[in-house]
Design a protein that fits this description.
452 residues, mainly beta, 6-stranded mixed sheet, 2 helices, 9% helix, 37% strand, transmembrane helix, membrane, transmembrane
Length: 452
């Protein structure tokens, strides 16, 4: 990955042009046009009709040859017919105008808008369209407004996601999508320290789905909550006491990832220590839990207090490569990069890419995948100034950033499955969980959904 490429920033949240849902142009339904046309003037209209009764005296008591009483009855019927016809025409005009108003109104139950990236060039991927559609008003979810979010999937061909968040009572709950729809809110999974962040990972063991959630206990010890699809029961275990794993800083955020290598199962959990330095907790299924292998505490970066953290596998030149994103002491979004080498110190290096300043305590999430073209793509997400921001990279395009959507809270999480299918979770309104999804089709669009 080139570190010299500049970051391009674009804001594509401007309001789109209104969609014209009116009738075709030949149907002008404005009130000024909807008039009953005047009869067309003809030469004969201005000529005086001859008096056919000249030389004849009109019979007394008759009008146009009819008795006065009969004439009045006929006249009344004609007047009623004229009134009825006029009412029918007026009703038709009103219905047409009402239809026009409904088509032009802003209260539609299915608002749709789109926002496009620039036209594709030799240096940029295809155009991406953001489409929003509500089939019904979303339902508020009982969650904390500033809750962290963590999502896991099992990288199968079928969508299967668990989304974790904090309930208003401080406990961690989840909602699951098994490929068809989002289920109901789960019972309590665990209840960490009130200001604890959390991270979650998932993997498959044969047909059994495994999930782990990492939090801080009341005494700031690193805690693991365990679940699998066989027992479907949650339980907690302290993984730090007696293992040299340092306590977490108050309010520390967490991030974790897992992989299999040479027949062993590996897990890494990253968090901020009480001295401000990032810490690493290591799991090897042949050895159990231990503190990270860094020679000294200072070998990991010191981060801004409350920094967001996001670890992502990034197999650029080696399948074991990874990037750990955090906020440095200058408030900049940067990464600490892992590339396997002979020693620990040689393996971990500071990246030279500066992604600019982010808000203190900004939650971070990142995913990597393979585009349909076979190109590696890296995506970072965070909330900045009330906007959901995507910063993405390909070797061909370099780094590009854009605002995807308004956001009401800092929590964010993303998962990638089957290559380049991506889900990004956030709150577009307080207490409303929402998601953007993208598939790997080159002509794909970002689809917005509310999680009910």
């Amino acid at each position: 990955m080139s570190s010299e490429q500049p970051i391009v920033y674009q804001d594509f949240q401007s309001a789109p042009e209104a969609v014209n849902l009116n009738l075709p142009s030949e149907y002008d339904t404005s009130p000024e046009v909807l008039q009953i046309p005047e009869p067309e003037s003809r030469p004969g209209d201005i000529q005086k009709e001859p008096d056919l009764n000249i030389g004849h005296k009109q019979p007394k008591g008759k009008i146009w040859g009819m008795k006065r009483k009969t004439f009045m009855i006929v006249l009344g019927i004609v007047i009623l017919l004229i009134i009825a016809v006029a009412a029918g025409v007026g009703g038709g005009v009103g219905a047409t105008a009402a239809k026009s108003d409904n088509n032009n109104g802003q209260g539609s139950s299915t608002p749709i808008y789109s926002s496009r990236l620039p036209t594709p060039t030799s240096d940029h991927p295809p155009v991406v369209t953001v489409t929003t559609s509500y089939s019904s008003p979303p339902t508020p979810t009982p969650i904390r407004q500033n809750t962290p979010l963590a999502a896991v999937n099992w990288n199968t061909s079928n969508l299967n996601i668990q989304l974790f968040y904090k309930h208003t009572d401080g406990s961690i709950r989840l909602q699951e999508n098994s490929g068809l729809e989002w289920g109901e809110q789960s019972p309590q999974i665990t209840k960490p320290k009130d200001n604890s962040g959390f991270a979650a990972i998932g993997w498959l063991e044969g047909e059994v789905r495994q999930v782990r959630v990492y939090t801080a206990s009341e005494n700031n010890a690193l805690t693991e909550s365990v679940w699998n699809s066989s027992s479907k029961l949650w339980y907690d275990q302290d993984i730090s006491t007696g293992r040299g794993i340092a306590p977490l800083a108050a309010g520390s955020q967490l991030t974790a990832y897992t992989w299999f290598e040479n027949g062993t199962h590996q897990i890494r959990v990253y968090y901020q220590g009480q001295d401000g330095y990032i810490r690493e907790a290591v799991f090897d299924n042949t050895k159990g839990w231990s503190k990270g292998d860094s020679p000294t505490i200072q070998d990991f970066p010191r981060a801004k207090n409350g920094t967001g953290l996001a670890i992502v596998s990034f197999p650029d030149t080696n399948e074991r490569e990874a990037k750990l994103y955090y906020q440095n002491m200058d408030g900049k979004l940067v990464s600490y990069d892992y590339k396997p080498a002979a020693t620990w110190v040689q393996s971990w290096q500071n990246s030279t890419v500066d992604h600019g300043s982010v808000s203190d305590g900004t939650y971070l999430t990142a995913v990597a995948g393979i585009l349909a073209t076979g190109e590696l793509v890296l995506r970072i997400y965070f909330i900045q100034d009330g906007k959901l921001v995507e910063t993405w990279w390909t070797r061909k395009a370099g780094w590009v950033s854009w605002n995807m959507h308004d956001a009401a809270a800092p929590g964010i999480s993303a998962v990638s499955y089957s290559g380049e299918h991506v889900y990004v979770f956030f709150q577009d309104k307080a207490e409303y969980l929402s998601a953007f999804s993208l598939n790997r089709d080159p002509n794909s669009v970002w689809n917005f959904t509310a999680i009910i």
